Amino acid sequence: MRVLAVRSSLALLGAFSLGITFSACATGEGNTDGGPQDLAVDGGTPDTGPIDQGMPQICEACLDTSACPVDFECQTIDDNSGQRACLPTCGRDEFDTCPDGWACVGPSGAGVCFPARGCCTVSSVGRACEGTGECGAGVLECDENGGARCSTDPGGSMDESETEICDGLDGDCDGDVDEDFLVGDPCDGTGACGAGTIQCASIAFDPTQMTAVCSSEPGGAQNQALPNDALCNGIDDDCDGRTDEDRGVGMVCDGMGTCGDGFVECASLNTTRCSTDPGGSAAMGGVEICDQQDNNCNGQTDEGFGVGVTCAGVGVCPAGLTECATTATIRCSTLPGGSAFTGAANDMSCNGMDDDCDGRVDEDFGVGTPCDPPGICGPGVLQCNGAGTGVVCSTGPGGTMSQVQTEVCNNMNDDCDGATDEGFNVGSSCDGPGECGIGVTECNTVGGTRCSTGPGGSASQVQSEICDGLDQDCNGVNDNGSISSLCPNGSNVSSTICAGAGGCQIMNCAPNTFNADNVYGNGCECADTETSSDNSCTNGVNDFNPAIGATQTRDGIIWGAGDSDWYQAVIPAGLNSGIRIEFSSNPGNALRFDLNQTGCSTAPDCSGSNGYTGLQLSTRHNCLANIRPGDPGTDIYNGCNSTAARTYYIRVYRGTGSATCIPYTLQVRAGESTQ
Fold first, then answer.
1. Residue of higher predicted confidence among 380 and 584
2. Average pLDDT of 632-653?
3. What pLDDT score was predicted for residue 279?
4. Full 3-state SS string of 22-63
5. How far apart are CA 515 and CA 560, in angstroms?
6. C-beta contacts of 425-428 below 8 A and 24+ residues apart
7. Percent of the chain scored above 90 by pLDDT?
8. Residues 209, 201: contact at Cβ < 8 Å?
9. Among 28, 189, 386, 395, which is 20 to 30 Å from 250 by CA?
10. CA pair distance 188, 178, nearest whole angstrom
């Protein structure tokens, strides 16, 4: 219809291009109100023909074909009135068809399309009508091609047509009943259902719905189907298009054990199997091995291997269950490699137990193997240590027969730990004691250490101890030893001391000897050689006893500030019984003398008034004969004058200078008291 409608429009446009003039159907030329007009066709009766809808239409009124567009013919559409209209041709070629609701009338190759209800005319529009088939009552109205149709027919304004079903009715209102279902034609029923004819029947699961079936199938008048596919026989017994579906045949299935996916198939009339199971069309089963799978697909796993049977444990591992070790061997589940193994990977603990459950105890530690620990410890055997983390030699540290001793410094490994004299720093640099120099630490003879340069060392620098404030014998004490060995008594020495860095010093000299030069090496080198003198006033007796006018001399030594010589001089009575005293030799002019009369501390009878102007009195009232202004010389003499016999006491001592052992000479003259 669409093709014809397009072609007709082109034909009409062509007619316009040729200058063909169409008369209005039921409307006057130029009439714009759309109302009906009584127009005559070629002077005939009033025209009640097709309605003009504002453009040339298929049913346009005509007198002959020359007034129609190309592919249109002028045909009588109402025999009673003689009404004629332009109608499209049909059947001339494959595209020459009629619009819906129109019929192609006439011989083959020369047909003309006639509307089933005629052309849409003024007189027909609005009249009551009965729709085709199951389409109900309506009113006539114009279709899109200018024909008349009932408003309830397909395409009408109140279209009641439905999809055609097989129910003996014209549901699509096209004038044909069940035209799509070939009702009455021969048919061959599905499955086991034989030949029959096509007929309409209600749908089994919805009786209100209809469909076409073969009469020999379920729902047909001669139904040959069984109630179900209960028999597994490869036949569609219930004629539903499926074979043995009640047995699940054809469905995907999972074969037993390791047999893979297959399809359900019949094993007998009453049983099924998976096609991959034993006996199936695609059987996949094999020889059973020990792998926790059903290899022969018989519904049993690892049969023949005793899997699951209780088995005894070993070592610390308890009893377990038999399980597969390899595809051909088994093991106890609690033993090494087993699924419930709780033992150690090896005998990591040396504890006298089989920790790895291999039937051997502490084998990874070599327990019982002979061993020889380092150091002085003798041969033994390996045994577990106390912590269980390893082994020790039975005679070594921690062993039950330990021969370990406390480490001392003796060039041996006493504690058997592999190190010799550890903790003693043997070989390290050391500074020997005292004057012993740099050496290395080494063992001494009693298990301790010493510096190699010290006493007993391999490079000893020990020397005999001397008195100098140092430690030559390197015993840690300076100047140790007896005084006789350090500072032996020298010449005229009675005792000595060691003064450290000051060396040996003389403490005491033998009688009448002195250490005047304060040198230890030459002993008490100074002998007191004075004649008839003493270091004490009371011991001097008639040291000088000259006659009047006679002179006597005495020699002596004043070695130091603490030394003094006392002389007793007895002068007889006489006119000139005075005393003259002088040094005939005074080393360094350093010596002095005091003069006392009658006693050791009595001033003599000499004074300036007696003509002894050169004498000066000391606090003891002595005549200090050698003290006067100026530097006294050896020719200075001093004296006291008296006519009576007198006893004088003379003390010679050192006034200035240092100690010396040079002798002096003291000269005494009786009688002369003046120069």
1. 380
2. 64
3. 86
4. CCCCCCCCCCCCCCCCCEECCCCCEECCECCCCCCCCCCECC
5. 9
6. 425/449
7. 32
8. no
9. 189
10. 20
**Is 50 exceeded by the pLDDT of residue 356?**
yes
DSSP string, 48-107: --BPP-SS--TT-B-SSGGGSPTTEEEEEEETTTTEEEEEEEESSSTT--PPTTEEEESS
- In 10 A of CB 474, how many CB atoms? 25
Q: Is the dihedral of CA 512, 515, 517, 519 positive or negative?
A: positive
Q: Measure the CA angle with vertex 26, ends 23 and 29; round to 5°.
A: 45
Q: What are phi and psi of 484, to 5 degrees?
A: -70, -30
DSSP string, 126-189: T-EEE-STT--EEEEEE-TTSBEEETTSTTSTT-------SSSS-TT-SS-SSTTTTTT-EEE-
The answer to whether 31 touches 24, Cβ cutoff 8 Å, is: yes
> Under a CB-based contact definition with an 8 Å cutoff, are residues 596 and 622 in contact?
yes
Distance separating alpha carbons of residues 239 and 218, to the nearest angstrom:
7
Residue type, 130: E
| Coil, helix or strand at residue 297 | coil
Cα–Cα dist 349/99, whole Å:
104
pLDDT over 60 (residue 4): no
Length of the chain: 675
Work out the number of other CB atoms within 10 angstroms of the CB of residue 284: 20
Q: Which amino acid is at 589?
A: N
Angstrom distances, CA of residue 309 to CA of 312, 333, 334, 489? 10, 10, 13, 110
Residue of 639, 605, 640 lying closest to 621 (CA atoms): 605
3-state secondary structure of 322: strand
Mean pLDDT (whole number) for 377-384: 94
Provide the β-strand partners of residue 552. 668
* Mean pLDDT, residues 12-36 taken together: 30
Return the SS3 of 429.
Answer: strand
Which of 128, 126, 99, 131 is closest to 115 using CA atoms?
A: 99
CA neighbor of 310 nearest in space, from 302, 321, 299, 301: 321
pLDDT, residue 144, reads: 79
Residue type, 602: T
Whether the model clears a pTM of 0.85, i.e. scores above it, the answer is: no
- Give the model confidence (pLDDT) of 497-515 as tens digits: 999 999 999 999 998 788 8
Tens digits of residue pLDDT in 98-119: 877 788 888 888 899 888 787 7
Q: Report residue 473 CA to chain centroid gap.
A: 63
